[in-house]
Amino acid sequence: MKKIIFIDTQNEKSNSFHLDRQDFYSKLNKEYKIPVVENIATTNKADIVFVHQSFYSDSNLMISSSERNPIVKDAIFVFYGNNSQEKIEITTDEVSYFNFYVLEQNFKAFINELTSNDLQDNSWNALLGFDHVLEELLKAFVETSPYETNNKQGKILKEAKAELLTYVEDYLKKQSKP
Amino acid sequence: MQRVFISNTAVQESGDIKIDGFFDIANLPIEKEQKDGNTIFVIDVHCTFNQLKLQEQGGVIIYRHLLNQFKDCQDKLKVVFYSPISKEHLAALRPENYVLTLLPFVQCEYDGNFAKALQEEIDKNAFVQFNNASENLLSGWSLNQKQYVETYFLSDEESEKPKNEQTPVARSIAVIDDQLNEWTTTFKNIFEPKTKFRFLLYNNSKGTKGNFDKTKIENLTDPKTAYTLTDQIKDIDLVLSDFYLEEPHESNNWMSSEELSTKSGFQLFETIKGKKGERGISKGIPYVMHTSSNKIQYLKFLDSNGVDNWLIKDTRPDTPIQQKRENYFAFKKEIEKYTSLESSELYVSLRKIWKQIELLESPSVPVSWWDSNTKKPSIINLLKNSWMALRAYVNKEEYFATNIGSNDKNFTPTAINSNLGKILEMDFKFGNTFDSNYFFHFLTQVRNASSHYIDYNFFGVADSLIYFESWLHALGNTNRHQNTPNKIFKTSNFTKEFMIQDNGGGTDETFIYRLLYVYLQYYNSVYSKETHLTKIRIKKRVGELLKLTDKKILLDEILNHNMPTDKSGRVKDGAVHLSEAIAKDLKNDPSLYFDLIEEKDKLFIINE
Fold this sequence. Notes:
The complex is a heterodimer of chains A (178) and B (608). Chain A is of the alpha/beta class. In chain A, 40% of the residues lie in helices and 12% in strands. Chain B is built from 21 helices and 15 strands.
């Protein structure tokens, strides 16, 4: 299971997150045990970091360069907010560090899709570009020699290869669709 | 040739590198004798170790660590990849591994023909060279949907033409590096096709080791012809140069400015850009350092010496994907400043202007109308100072200016024009006819517009270029007779024209859109014909300035202005009402659509 954190800025006076997002964050906490924090330095190592755009107004909290924050060195970054990506890019070119960008209004659909499988590895894997079927198909070729001839083993590999290529072609076709 | 298979199985009886789950990628077991160029590493694309997934193409990760191990002898690294999937599909699945499509590769068929296919790949001897930095950049390009670095500039004028008639201008780039062979493949892929490169290898194996010498530079693009460095650089639009050409690459030592100034990259920089007392090859040429060093003090040192920017070679074998993407994007954005973006025109102008200043300064230029022992140094100083201001403006602190609410983008251009206009204050003796010269009026009135608070907000850098070019046109027009006007400042026999600058001729009634009117009057005069480039710029600026105007004020100024009179109250000779000189059938209705029409090489404001 991937470790996920959300980062958002809090209202100084009320010491709480923005009203619009409070329900959503509480659901994340209750149902998925996903923490929402204000200060990245207090979090443990995370695999996936969701960063709200408001976080960016405070330059001290810049986290885009993973080098500066060994805590999240290998994490996947998802940037989310209610401004379009183009608008954000005008104010900061740091946004290109992020692997994904999600508009806040689309966020529930996005997270629903990700969490449809109770945040099992597979749904996160899809997010990370990992394909379960492709991995299975490739397994036939591990610990085999490329010199395998047209013998029994070679025939098995040829069949496995045909299946693999068909799958890869379909997979790439699906990916290229807008 | 010895073959070493790198995979999760033992392919040969001995000598292979068998990868297991605990494989330490940082310590690849490569023997010294395997770095002699006689070993071929045959790598399974889908190697797995440390819980790496098969589809993560661990073979390419291993290749990156091989590049790291061979960093001092990349020409000795020879690899062939293999996979059941084609290399094109592998690169489509993992765009960051685009390098697979360029390196020797065998797609396994499992039909007994692998040995033959492998031998054929080896026989091609197409072992393309990379290093970690060039492979990272290639990877970043592929991750950015293969968006090329653009090197052709399409001017506004050309972009208005139908597509098949457009002629973009190619910008040429000189790449200077001691490891050039490790970069050419990457550059040829990531720059747009037909980019005009001049690949210049700094061959540090020639001559005395450790000593910078410009004759060590060889032209790989055209190796048969012997060129001097001056020949190689003088017509180039951008120099992209390594910093360590003779020395070992970045170490952990910190160098002082004195030490830095002895480094080969800096010496090459000074050879090209010149230094105090030495003109150099091209002072105006944009110069970007492309180096593995990322020490900010070094950048500051070179910055203050006139280097235009600094791009980092990311030499890490394990750079995360998003950082490759970002580094490529930064590379593309920076290069395009000098090649395809609007700013590239500015750099071309800076170079041309500097060349003209150098020419004027040269003692070989005949004595001209403005030349005298006292005036020449002052004029050259004004030109050089204005050029520096223009250069500083190009590298301006744009965001800081915005932060503090400074209108720098207008202020600096007006300061440049106002200072160039000081030339007018020098005491030239041109005779009585000079005052009525239209070109003189143009120079005076642009200067005046830049010096009055009411107009200056409309100035931009394009206005500085127009004014600079106009002055260089005037100063470059030589005449052996000192203190007499040359043909530029002679009053011609054409119908006398009078340039209107103030509403009623009084200094207290300045036009708000004076710059627009001055440009249009000059454009429409017979005096503008000789300066073709300036006319193109003026036409573009007139269009931009017109868009900025408040149409109610514009109409009021044009339709209701008072004609200038002499002391006796008579309208001055040659004065034409603005509504006729720069407009056609202008209706007094600000809600209409305002545009420009061109008739017989003249421009007029219309509304309809």
